[in-house]
Specification:
Radius of gyration: 20 Å
Shape: elongated
Order of helices and strands: HHHHHHHHH
Organism: Gracilibacillus pellucidus
Number of domains: 1
Helix content: over 70%
Number of strands: 0
Number of helices: 9
Protein name: Methionine ABC transporter permease
CATH superfamily: MetI-like
CATH topology: MetI-like fold
Length: 220
């Protein structure tokens, strides 16, 4: 039997806001962690600016390990850590913790990929002019890779949106939680369709915005 969708619009609006909050905060914290990690991966790579084989091997291994864990398993595996950080394992705040743990290593890899696209000749020219490592990183590497970084961060954001929907399986709130609680468990097909459409709209907006920002920031 159908439902009166009008009675559910406030719930849908609240779930959309929760999803946007999860994605925004998770992205911010993941960038704070992931961007420096990505930079360190590049500069400590053997033969690079601050090449350190042992340090690179350890960091590379840790990131590979975290990247290999499926998000749905990670959600459950770090429940004690989530409870320690936010005091609960249910709700939007609790979903942000595993989202950050999941997305930060992913962003580190994407940042690494973007920075490695920078021509070695540009770096060598900066070194020849006497630039210090930190100057090369922030005045050469990052600016040269900025357009690619934006595209890769857009990809990461879309990934976080998808992961935020999976957080609904453990009561993480947002559109995923609404889709599971009503669209799946109660067979309310209309709710499922609405949540899917809203997620599609959010993803399309993020991707379009990222493409536009990347294009306008491209160095000529």
């Amino acid at each position: 039997m159908g439902i009166d969708l009008a009675t559910f619009w406030p719930r849908i609006v609240d779930a959309t806001i929760e999803t946007l909050q999860m994605v925004a905060f998770s992205l911010i914290f993941s960038l704070i962690i992931g961007i420096p990690l990505g930079i360190v991966l590049v500069v400590t790579r053997p033969g690079n600016l601050l090449g350190n084989k042992a340090f690179f091997a350890v960091l590379n291994g840790v990131i590979n390990f975290l990247r290999s864990i499926p998000f749905i398993i990670l959600l459950v595996a770090i429940i004690p850590f989530t409870r320690l950080v936010v005091g609960t394992t249910i709700g939007t705040a609790a979903a942000i913790v595993p989202l950050v743990v999941y997305a930060a290593p992913y962003i580190a890899r994407l940042v690494e990929s973007s920075l490695l696209e920078v021509s070695p000749g540009v770096i060598e020219a900066a070194e020849a002019m006497g630039a210090k490592p930190w100057q090369i990183i922030f005045r050469v590497l990052v600016p040269e890779a900025f357009s690619s970084l934006i595209l890769n961060i857009t990809i990461a954001t879309v990934g976080i949106i998808g992961a935020s929907a999976m957080a609904g399986f453990v009561g993480g709130g947002g559109l995923g939680d609404l889709a599971i609680a009503y669209g799946y468990q109660r067979f309310e097909t209309e709710i499922m369709i609405i949540t899917v459409l809203l997620l599609v709209v959010i993803v399309q907006f993020v991707q379009s915005l990222g493409n536009k920002l990347s294009k306008t920031s491209r160095r000529r």
